[in-house]
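By way of example, what follows is a protein record of this kind.
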Amino acid sequence: MKWWRNIKDIILSFYYPSDQIFLVSFPNSGRTWLMYMVKKILKKIGKEDLHIEYVHDCSEIIIEDGTRQDPYLIFKFTDRFRYLRSKVIFLARDPRDIVASNFHQVTNRAKNPFKFRSKSEFVNHDIFGFKRIIHFFNLWFKNKNKPKEFLLIKYENLLDDTNDLRRMINFLPINVPDELIEKIYNESKADKMRKKELNNQLEGFRDFGKEANKLKVRKARKGSYLSELSSADIVFCNKEMEKLHPFFGYTL
């Protein structure tokens, strides 16, 4: 029952240290890239022991080892009392780009992957597809005041410059010179990371094949959905986007 889940989450919040940092995102929002840059920065300044919990918060339907999550959890339990004593960074990305990328994740980058008759079947699926992303974003808008502090950063901003990366670093209990942030950012551009992935030089990356849609570092650009989704699917997604809270700043 929902009330019992909330009590358990309140209790769980006390198992984390006060001011525990969580980075929350829907899969395929750029979390791996952001984690890579942050970990390199922490290593450079000797703060590798700073613990950040990187979570998808029940939004994923399958993880790379093949484990399939209960896809109904984020619809059944919509409160986030687990984060009461923590600080949350929410990484957002245009939901249309997420769904285009997530299709390849769940069908290519996992053991025992999902199979759909078409990309459109996945996009339009009430539980697995685009509606799931909108629900997750709106769920977090409603819960953004539960953590002690909440910071929204956006993948699109990270693609443009270091401002959101710097905002995240400033959110942490550390001091980092601007020039180091710029250096790590420039060393972590998508083309360089893709080359490293192809050469198996990225620690912790599972190898599911070297074809473009099996890589973790795929297109890494804004608006990729325009060339990856059908016109009918784009119309469907745009209609659902009307339900997304304007807090996130994504427009049609």
Notes: The chain is about 45% helix and 10% strand.
